[in-house]
């Protein structure tokens, strides 16, 4: 048998076909997977003058599409990363969906609502604003879904959940946690949602269902005898009991002095935080 030849190091050239326009302005605001972004909307605007209007023909009948994109906010990669669902340490980046990749390519299955010219209106989106889109393909259920496939280290994490239930030392569970809001916390979250449009209760629930353990990606840390979760500029205090999580209260992430100084500006960017403090003394 002939010896294999050298691995090619040919550089490839890619050109975006369009951009994502989304209300998500930072990585911290985006869901970790499209499944955790149910209902989130965005649009993809393809560049004109490239015959893409013809390329879009016959796509509108598909309920879901694959969006191949570039993680444009990442400028480095890491061979080992700590995924949000890992309770057993860092994993090789090729065994994860982490954006910190040698070639920062991303792939999301999103719901296609409609097409208007060169604009695709999509839902269940985990893409930040300005994401370059490299390609679009239809999601074909009978060939793209393999629900019985082995899930690697995620299977080990699921077994860890069973060990918790059997009384062993508690690792970070995957989806075995129930999230409940105390009445005050539910009212505070509803107040914020009504005034900012941020789906706070949905974001809190999606994050805490993965477990309460402190985790950098999930922005959770211990605070006194409880826990603190950061969601954008809001702080969420919660407690745990066996497999249940109680959300106790929501507060502003800004200090009173910062909110006070904001009043000196004509537009007062922290006005909603001032009103929140008045409403929830």
TrEMBL record:
The keyword S-adenosyl-L-methionine applies. InterPro entries: TrmO-like_N (IPR023370), UPF0066_cons_site (IPR023368), YaeB-like (IPR040372), YaeB-like_sf (IPR036413), YaeB_N_sf (IPR036414). Residues 14-148 form the TsaA-like domain. It holds the Pfam family TrmO_N. The keyword Manganese does not apply. Gene3D superfamilies: YaeB-like. Keywords: S-adenosyl-L-methionine. Signal peptide: none annotated. NCBIfam families: tRNA_TsaA (TIGR00104). PANTHER family: TRNA (ADENINE(37)-N6)-METHYLTRANSFERASE. Belongs to the tRNA methyltransferase O family. This is Uncharacterized protein family UPF0066 domain protein. It comes from uncultured microorganism.
């Amino acid at each position: 048998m002939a010896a294999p030849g050298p691995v090619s190091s040919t550089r490839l050239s890619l050109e975006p076909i369009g951009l994502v326009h989304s209300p998500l302005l930072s990585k911290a605001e985006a869901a970790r997977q499209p499944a955790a972004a149910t209902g989130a909307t965005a649009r993809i605007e393809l560049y004109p003058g490239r015959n893409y209007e013809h390329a879009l023909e016959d796509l509108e009948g598909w309920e879901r599409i694959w969006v191949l994109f570039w993680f444009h906010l990442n400028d480095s990669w890491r061979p080992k990363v700590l995924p949000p669902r890992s309770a057993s340490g860092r994993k090789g980046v090729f065994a994860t969906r982490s954006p910190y990749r040698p070639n920062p390519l991303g792939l999301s299955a999103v719901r296609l609502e409609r097409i208007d010219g060169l604009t695709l209106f999509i839902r269940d989106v985990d893409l930040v604003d300005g994401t370059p889109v490299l390609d679009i393909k239809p999601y074909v259920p009978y060939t793209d879904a393999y629900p019985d496939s082995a899930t690697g280290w995620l299977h080990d994490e699921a077994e860890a959940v069973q060990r918790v239930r059997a009384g062993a030392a508690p690792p970070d569970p995957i989806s075995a946690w129930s999230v409940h809001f105390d009445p005050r916390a539910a009212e505070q979250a509803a107040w914020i949602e009504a005034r900012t449009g941020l789906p706070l209760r949905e974001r809190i629930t999606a994050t805490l269902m993965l477990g309460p353990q402190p985790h950098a990606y999930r922005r959770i840390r211990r605070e006194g005898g409880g826990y603190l979760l950061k969601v954008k500029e809001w702080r969420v205090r919660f407690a745990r009991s066996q497999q249940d999580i109680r959300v106790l209260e929501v507060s502003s992430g800004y200090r009173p002095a910062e909110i006070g100084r904001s009043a000196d500006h004509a537009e007062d960017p922290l006005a909603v935080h001032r009103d929140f403090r008045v409403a929830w003394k």
